[in-house]
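chain below, 65 aa
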Amino acid sequence: MKIVDFTLNDEVIMKKPHACQTNLWTVVRNGSDIKIKCNNCGREIMMDRLEFMRKLKKVIKNEKN
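prediction:
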């Protein structure tokens, strides 16, 4: 598994779309557990880091930082 660098408020693209038909999320919490928020419907999901890394497709850096 490759290591991907991401921080808070970065936008990420997941492999599978959410029920609201988008796969664009924002990282809300970063630690041993990762919390992401759907950019379309606002639903928040928490998962462990290994599961997140398996489901992650791409990291889009947030230019606001």
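The CA atoms of residues 17 and 25 lie 10 Å apart. Residues 11-60 form one domain.
thats it, cya
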